[in-house]
User: What shape does this take?
Amino acid sequence: MSSDASKNVFLEFLRPHRTIPHTSWAARHRWDLSIRRTLILFFGLLIFGLGDSLFVQSGTGNAPWTVLAEGVSKKLDISLGISTFTISTLVLLLWIPLREKPGFGTIANIVIIASAIQLGVNVFPSASNYLSGVLMDLLGIAMVGMGSALYITCALGPGPRDGLMTALHNRSGIRVGRVRLGIESTVLIIGAFLGGTVGLGTALFALLIGQSIAISLGVVSRITSQK
Assistant: This one.
């Protein structure tokens, strides 16, 4: 195979996917559990949380929700993991007046991502310089993208933040993108005010995470279609 052909195959493999692909492990409803589906869900959430923790260790700026979690952890003198867990639980409570129903994936999202972020902060070293911090950010974006693709395709329910976004969209009629922008902007401002780290990493996450998820969904779709 020529180098041009190999390049084209690689680029095709990384082509973003515009929709959520149907996978062989997709659930029929939010509490439709199986060993395989649950393991894929857990692995996706673990990768997501570890990727998020790389932003913290990079020192260049956190993802918006982790900016808030870090700010709260500093003010209350609690660990980042506990802060993330608490915030996710409070966001889930906002589902009640919006009549949004959680699934198994929603509960797993709260527990595993918070635990994985704390694990990553404890295990991953801090960036030795700014360049290595940016490289950690890019790796984190790729991991969060792939983790998102895996847990989303399990169809066991959205995470607390995504559920809040879609519920507000459904109730208000405001476009999903605008709802998401409003939520993340509010979270970021509050987190920065509380002392959370904002910087280039935050901007990179905002700019690239959507594309990372789309590419990861495409990779998952093409891998499963080949089986």
Residues 17 and 115 are 29 Å apart (CA to CA). Residues 34-225 form one domain.
